[in-house]
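INFO  loader      accepted 1 record
INFO  loader      residues=378
INFO  predictor   begin
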Amino acid sequence: MRNPGLVLVALFVIVWTDSYSSFPEISPGSDREWDAGVQTHAGFLMAHRPVIAHLQHKHSNAIQCYLLKKMDGSKSWHSDYGLPYIGLSYRMTDFGNREEIGLGHSVVMMARFPLFPQAKKWQSAIDFGYGLGFIERPFDVESNYKNLASGSVVNAAFSLAMTTSYPLNPNLRIRGGIDFLHFSNGAARMPNLGLNVPGLLIGLNYRFDFQSRTDPNRFEKKVSPTTETSSYRRTRAYAAYGIKEIYPPNDGAYSVYMLNAQHHRTTGKKGLFGGGLDMIYDTSLPTKLSRESGNPKNNDPGAFIRGGAFGSAGLQMGPWSAYLQVGAYLINPVKSDGDVYNRLALHYQFKKGLFLCMNLKSHFGKADYMEWGAGYSF
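INFO  predictor   done
INFO  writer      dumping tokens
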């Protein structure tokens, strides 16, 4: 998989800054306002590695439908992000190669962040989606050995789009823009070079407001004031588990266990920055080490362990927080992956400090494994 973090870099750069602070009078939304849309996509399958260039047969196309609910301003983060829309999206993608890839289906949690919340006519937004993807024809050593991009039916799906819309009437808008779709299984099954599809989109969305626009009580809901404008510190620790395969394909799965401690402080209303430490017990490392050195399998306990330190930048949105992290190994018995690693992390905070996380660790964009963990926020 080529760098999944690039899919989110634009979102972090634009949304991390307090870009809505210049719109202090954003009106609260109706708690009955929904946005339903359908759009088509036209693009192409990227040959981001020469070994998958043979998968490019025809142009890619897709159809997508979604249902989003506008946040009503009852939480401070709603206004911090310009009253975004959040909901679900389904997309069916024809990669242009029915024989070796088949169709792709994705069901994602979708969020639409307005870039200029007070605009009336032309409205720009960033659409971000994250969820499950399904490939009809993954790699099979006997029946489909040419599909080196995807080794499993079930994948993670990421999407990012920048769109602009214009009203055709008070409720109906035409929308167009550019987007990027990515499928990957996080190296849980090999091969996993990933499917990347950039393209253009055009569609219609209809805004349902079940409360009359002339109702004087429409905006009666009180907007919660922002309470996180001052700087504060957050320390977290968690344990996680992952599963991975290494080349060659069908050689068996390996478990990964890791401990993580990190510390962040806020910047503005939404941003987080800090760093932390990792300790990783990776059962695939002795096998990789023996194959690269040509020596018999090394069962020395030190051959299983990696340790590293990382820097981190993140966004907080209510109970959710997302991070882009870059680290360097301080302990690294296998040098073929390099000494630099990356992590794309998503955390969900419960009350009383407990949180869950779902992370993707990689080396310069090549997926290492998915982390599934739980921890405590101090």
